[in-house]
Q: What sequence folds into this?
């Protein structure tokens, strides 16, 4: 079960850079690059304010989350699961060299990505 850090600050499940959801689903069956993956469990806090309030009570003390993932071209993906020790979810364009998005807020699932993705050479 990976330790999950998340920089998508406006997700309803994000609390102090941790994901308070029991488990997340990462998408990207055709992904060859980090930005082509996404966190399918993203939910905008602006829309789901009530869920955000509940999320605060669900913070796991060790920060570990179940991660289901279909990014089959990632070295860490095996049997629909992520086998990495730790992963980081970010906003697409959140890299220092790509400062398109300074706010670390996503407006949709497609604007999130798994930064830990590593392309598996076949
Ligand atoms: S974007 Fe995904 S990993 Fe981040 S807090 Fe939301 S559900 Fe959790
Ligand atoms: S590191 Fe790879 S296997 Fe793990 S969630 Fe990210 S894309 Fe999926």
A:
């Amino acid at each position: 079960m990976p330790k999950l850090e998340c920089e998508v600050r406006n997700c309803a499940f994000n609390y102090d850079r941790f994901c308070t959801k029991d488990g997340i689903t990462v998408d990207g069956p055709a992904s060859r690059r980090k930005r082509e993956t996404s966190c399918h469990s993203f939910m905008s806090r602006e829309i789901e304010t009530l869920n955000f309030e509940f999320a605060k009570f669900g913070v796991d003390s060790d920060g570990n989350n179940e991660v289901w993932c279909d990014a089959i071209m990632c070295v860490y993906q095996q049997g629909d699961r992520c086998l990495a020790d730790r992963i980081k979810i970010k906003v697409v364009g959140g890299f220092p060299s790509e400062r398109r998005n300074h706010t670390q807020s996503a407006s949709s699932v497609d604007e999130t990505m798994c930064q830990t993705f590593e392309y598996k050479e076949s």
